[in-house]
Fold:
Amino acid sequence: MLQRLAALRRDARMVLDGLRGRSPSPLVQRPPSPVYPPIAAADSAGRARTLEVAAVTRETADAVTLTLVEPTGQDLRFVPGQFFTLLVPLDDGPPLRRAYSASSSHLDPSRVTITVKRVPGGRVSSHLVEHAAPGLRLAVLGPSGDFTVAPAPGARRHVVAIAGGSGITPIMAIARGVLAVEPASRVTLLYGNRDAASIIFAAELERLRAEHGARLVVRHLLEDAGDLPGAAAGRLDAATIAAQLDAAGLDAAADASYFVCGPEAMMAEARAALTARGVAADRVREERFTAPARRQAGQATAAQPVTIRKAGVASDVIVPAGATILDAGLAAGVPLALSCAMGGCGACSVTLTTGEVALDEPNCLSATERARGTILACVARPLSPCTVEAP
Ligand SMILES: Cc1cc2nc3c(=O)[nH]c(=O)nc-3n(C[C@H](O)[C@H](O)[C@H](O)COP(=O)(O)OP(=O)(O)OC[C@H]3O[C@@H](n4cnc5c(N)ncnc54)[C@H](O)[C@@H]3O)c2cc1C
Ligand code: FES
Structure:
């Protein structure tokens, strides 16, 4: 409670300082954090690893960057644009799983940074923004995700990124990777925020711009532009995006790849702007931080018995009405693999050998995988007694 009050006081002070034009102090000074109790179910899958928070850096009044390291010194490898899934135990229930994109350079495998922006009323984001401190140990899955660019020295490309708020995180890793590894490539970033004080990585973007010159173009779009030099006033709506792309000389024929990440409404505007310009769909990549509205293929209205076979062991679990096979399996101690927990990565694939399930849509299964009987345990709700085979 006292810690929470101190955090609230600190945040209020930061907001006031921001209003007075003072920059936030970059490194958050916090007492060492307790080590959370071990996370049984996911750890026993053998895929979660424990990472330690080595530093907490204040980015804005409501966002912090956590520098994560492997306490054993092992490398942390990822492809720019990928995310890690944190398992955060907040109460007596199972740990909450939340994805956070790597924002650091993939060229430094000794550490990875993630940047967490507080979502109003959000359980995990508020907890991490307020309480994460050096020494905190977290179970982490991943990396996963295919919103990626694999930098290659010989590549020659134009990455055009459209980001809003915390959507900058995967873009940051992509920009760092492309600019560092590909001397013939360039990056154009349209970055939307409320005001100058809410820009995450403002100083780091300036540093990259100074380092890479004309190969990095950053256009800040601010609802309240204030006196930030070079920033334009406005939201990232379709008309503004189109105007900015025109200004950057990017027509439909331009040889560019588009990466879009931000609030759902902004992503819809970006999609509309790019479609209206005739940009081919295969040139546009999107990363959603919130699960899109889910369409369920059928309503699972009753609890169902499910047998999960893994490594020759059969576990019988009861999946409550509407629950997923993954949640019920983990709750019963079955070591099921998972990563994104939202149907996006395929890590929880199992084979349905008997019974019927409703699979939430969209999910990442191909038609061939579906035909083979593959289902995603994290979005599968049994409609009848089932048996699944886990790898
Ligand atoms: C692939 C992927 C990568 C991600 N990368 C990042 C990242 O780098 N940085 C980051 O800060 N977040 C990132 N997120 C979002 C993050 O995983 C959490 O969803 C977010 O921190 C909110 O969790 P919470 O527990 O605080 O909120 P919850 O307690 O789960 O939700 C509280 C309320 O907020 C709404 N909500 C949940 N998430 C969001 C959101 N992102 N925006 C607006 N409203 C939301 C919920 O619908 C709910 O009403 C990513 C998500 C995905 C899927
Ligand atoms: S855990 Fe990613 S698809 Fe199920």
